[in-house]
Amino acid sequence: MKTIISTNNVKKILFFAIALFTTGLFAQDEEAKTKPKLSLSGSIDAYYRANLSAPNDENAIAPGSSFANLPGFALGMANVIASYEGEDVGFVADLVFGPRGTDAIFASPMYSATGNIVNQLYVYWNVSDKVKLTFGNFNTFLGYEVISPVANFNYSTSYLFSYGPFSHTGLKADFDLGNEWSAMVAVMNPTDLTEFNPTGNYAFGAQLGYSGQYLNFITDDGAYEIDFTGGFDVSEEFFLGINAAYFDNDGVGFAGAALYPQYATSDTFTIGLRGEYFTETGDFGAIGTGIEDSSVFAVTLTGSATIGNLMIKPELRLDSASDDAFINNDLTPTKSLSSFVLAAVYSF
């Protein structure tokens, strides 16, 4: 009898031990699910650029758009993004180093002497499954292209992207309206004043989205911009991106449209074209002709080869303006410029 009782006691002890161990495993699993996760990502990029129809010495010129404008072998930027994602709240700290990064944050006009390198710096709160609040410095919601070369198909950037806002600082609310509809409203510092607000004025933004198509609006001290950004999968291999915008500041501004057809020839290579028409109203000064109401038509042909996390992008670009905006190899003013870029972009 004692032996039977002893055996039963052993069974009970083993049962409770297994139960406690299992409960501990489940508790650890639940803790792992709810514990915020710190992640690090980013990219580096470098490129070679040469004019085909213009000098490549001290007289070298480039299109009037942002980035990838330095001659010869040149640096893009190092982009390091730290993010902390909790169940409902988190943050993003996005830092940039190098020429592209400096151009992206306008050399941090308020704090350039202290070496500000912030591209984005914000916290967010998922209030519910349908509402998200973002507070801080975030990249713009307007336009098809972005600052990071990882998310752009073409390495050089469009005029539409270059003369729209890059980043904002403020508070925005994103809403999931259901059935593929979304909306966003924002109150922000004046455009490009990303460190603090020295004017006391504020910009207001809004977005309405449906199934990957977005209608954007921003108004800032009398100036305003309307922007449409979207795209369609025509087939499994063929994608067509679209961007159109109109900006006005008391009769001075720009308008334009761009198409981005891209065709994947394999899992590792895609070829794409950006065709853009950009026109100024008044003396906006983006194209560089010195003449009011100038326009430019730019065609950029880009190949993108993927090798693991590395993308190699050869690119041919032709900018053709309505008036003399460039020079040729004889240093004579001309309406067109052809150039070549070979870029390498590594993401992690």
UniProtKB/TrEMBL annotation:
UniProt keyword Signal, yes or no: yes
Signal peptide: 1-27
InterPro entries noted in UniProt: BBP2, Porin_dom_sf
Keywords of this entry: Signal
Gene3D superfamilies registered for this protein in UniProt: Porin (2.40.160.10)
Designated name of the protein: Porin
